[in-house]
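Step 1: inspect the first sequence and its tokens.
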Amino acid sequence: MRVRDGISVVVVMLFVVLALGCSKSEPPKPAAPPPAPAVSAAVEGKALFEQKCGVCHGLDRATVRHESKEKWAEIVKSMQGKKADFISDAEATKIVEFLAAEHGKK
């Protein structure tokens, strides 16, 4: 009977050790990375200028001019008319913002 009691105690202790070992909490997962910073309007406008306007002429064409925001809007609007649907109104707005900020009248 003592052997049976000894085996029972060992088996019970084994289950207790297994149960405690399995119940350990996992380390906390790292927090999600912060969202990427939004692209500034100037950077996006410059990229659009290079992508859309650069098909026909380079950035140097704009850098030699210093126009008011209204004049840049006129110029971009006239360029929109040269090829339908190539520059959307939203893209044109960003391009105008870039041109006015970087190459506006001072």
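Step 2: inspect the second sequence and its tokens, then contrast the two.
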Amino acid sequence: MKEQTKMVIKEWVESIIIAVILALFIRTFVVQAFKIPSGSMIPTFQVGDRIFVNKFLYGAKVPFLNANLPAVRQPARGDIIVFISPDAPKKDFVKRLIAVGGERVEIKDGKIIVDGKAVEEPSSIRSFYYYNGGDYGKEGQVIDVPKDSYFVLGDNSASSRDSRFWGFVPKKNLLGKAIVIYWPIHRMKTIN
């Protein structure tokens, strides 16, 4: 009887260890859950929404090394990205990607202008009114996005601290792309 009890305990311990390792692997390299703490992305996200973020798509960071896995694709205009705040490194932010390194961006009459042309696609950008403000978003100011950096805005730009105030998101701060709202149940949906 004692031998059988030891076998059962050993099986449980092995199962728990494998489950923990698998969960850590998935969280580190594939998908991670985040909670939306503010209204800066309303109406796309509500305060308290819980989302899954695809870390694999842009090349997940390898812990303890200054390296990333190969990316499936590069971030694109309109993606909702999660990143380490350049302003507060202990916080993760979620914002919409507006422009990438090498592009020139301007906020004019509530519209986003990239490289001299109003952004028409994706419609997720065109459908919002963007307010001017901060050191990087003044009316009439054209901003050059540095190489390996991103210019991001909250969908609720009247109530968002974003690239207009603290500048650019370095590529190294990128964590992943928001893909699904999984909680609350009545708001469950994929994110475009």
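Step 3: confirm your contrast with the notes below.
The mean pLDDT is 92. The chain has one domain: 31-190.
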